[in-house]
Amino acid sequence: MFAIKKIFRIIKTKEIKSMLKIKKLLFPTDFSKCADQALNHAVFYAEKYGAELHILHAITLFADQPDVLHKEFLETDDMIKNIERNFEEQMITVARKHENKEIKIFKSCKRGISAAPTILEYASEKDVDLIIMGTQGRRGLAHIMLGSTAEEVVRMADCPVFTIREKETAKPIKAFQQILVPVDFSEHSATAIAYAKRIAQDYDAQLQLLHIIENTTHPAFSLSGKSSIYDFFPNIKEDSINKVKKMFDEANGPEVKSEIFIKDGHPAHEIIEFSKEKGSDLIVISTHGLTGVDHFLLGSVSEKVVRRAFCPVFTVRTFGKSLI
Questions:
Q1: Residue 16 confidence (pLDDT) above 50
Q2: Pseudo-torsion of CA 228, 231, 235, 239, nearest 10°?
Q3: What is the pTM of this model?
């Protein structure tokens, strides 16, 4: 009997170590269809980890129309009261929808100049472990003019962020089977793989490990008659496969199924195209946390993926709060 108990204890310890450490979840909502789809994932994780679920509605009356502030100032208090009243009514609907689930739900209305800083401030105040939110995936002129709350939260948050893009019909959580992990051999990729192993365990899914070879050479090398990176490194694909396998084997986490893919091209574009072609259900990607001039000049692959991906994106980081 002692031996059996000891074995069980060891198995249980390994299970705990392989899971993400989530105690507090933040779900920002504007009660749109987009937010409702993200809520399903928030509830899934709150149930799975026994975590608190914090539901936040950011009141930003004039975020998109600051020119009307002086005209409507006198009506602001009444408008906020109406918004808070509507929030309470909508929260009752949310609570009823999940009343049979054993989840601690904390609801809050918070005023702010714009949504992203309000979300980030709340996350910091409550020491949130994971932010789960919807994104409408604006592109073109709308994105340039309005930006993206999700992208700003992804860039600035101190914890991982799970973004779910709105779909006409959301895929059931239990149907998640393929999780895509872009790998660029940096410490950021190693962190993404470690997270992805645990997330794959959560969804009972397998990993698609993708490395992109940027096949560009400096113009000066054209004088040597070599125009491709393959001219310099003919075995680059085989070497890349071996490197990806090594990173996967060395990454901490549970044993999960995986497959390795190598493609040529620009990272953000190829990640999006691959996810469509191979039917990825989720992308787990690490952000380098670029800000200021670096972000302006280089952009961010993770933010482009968040903006354009047709499937949910789980963004992790090597800095800030760790869930592993």
A1: no
A2: -50
A3: 0.81
